[in-house]
Amino acid sequence: MNIQRAFRVWQRNFTVYTKLYKSSFVFNFVEPILYLVALGLGLGSFVKEINGIPYINYIAPGLIASSSMFATASECTYGTYVRMTYQKTFDAILATPVNLEDLVAAELLWGATKSLIYGTVIAIVITAFGLIDSPMIILCIPVLFLSGLIFAEISIIAVALVPGIDSFSYFFTLLVTPSFLFSGIFFPLDTLPPLISRIAYFTPLYHVVNIFRSLSAGNVHAVLGDLVWLVIAAALMAPFPFRLMRKRIVK
Fold it and tell me: How far apart are CA 220 and CA 26, in angstroms?
């Protein structure tokens, strides 16, 4: 893999994004804000506090994490598949000195970049609303990139395996949405049966939510275990997008 060639592909994706960002940005920006208002203020009028934290403050850090997950998952499933299958962008790129490993690496980096962009914007907005208690939330920026890399790896593995674009509905319904609902964003998982808590532990979003909630409270030392989990998960999954996409593309 050549870093310079991968960066050029990343640069191509970024250039396209700067021309089309308004349509995708609105969706990924507005949805978490709607959750924040509807649940934080609506449900929050009934659920006053969780663990001594006002409900709207409790869910705010988790919405930073979930917005980054959805941005990356959408980009690296539908976006990657369209570039590969319908637009034939991959064919055109692979006709240049860029090889498949460079291309897949660029897709992973671009997915992590989308996570960074959207997560950072949501973090700024939520901080402006006064829902973050500590300036340590700024440390979420590198975590957004790391978690985005994991979500990109999972999404590109899905791209390599699905028979068609319609199958992504299963990916989102069976994996992404349950992760969103049972990652501790809206309620502590210790209120659920132990089996669900154990399953949630093996989802990246659960650990990202824990990290952002700890940073929001200024408790930096509490993030170490979850951060190590994310680093190990990213390293263990890293080879699979390359291997599976090679099987998918190289006939």
Answer: 32
Q: Residue 29, class by beta-carbon neighbours within 10 Å (0-12 exposed, 13-18 middle, 19+ buried)?
A: middle
Q: Which positions ≥6 away from 19 have C-beta within 8 Å? A: none
Q: 188-223: per-residue pLDDT in tens?
A: 888 888 888 888 889 999 999 999 999 998 888 888
Task: Give the CA count within 13 Å in the CB-facing half-sphere of 6.
Answer: 14
Distance CA 74, CA 42 (A): 28
* pLDDT, tens digit, 9 for 90 and up, residues 128-145: 888 888 888 899 999 999
Look at residues 116, 121, 113 and name the one whose alpha carbon lies nearest to residue 79: 113
Are the CB atoms for 76 and 159 separated by under 8 Å? yes
| Number of Cβ atoms within 10 Å of the Cβ of 222 | 15
First-to-final CA distance of the chain: 20
- Residue 221 class from Cβ within 10 Å (0-12 exposed, 13-18 middle, 19+ buried)? exposed
Question: Residue 182 corresponds to which tokens in the numbers above?
Answer: 């049972």
- Name 166's Cβ contacts closer than 8 Å, sequence gap at least 6: none
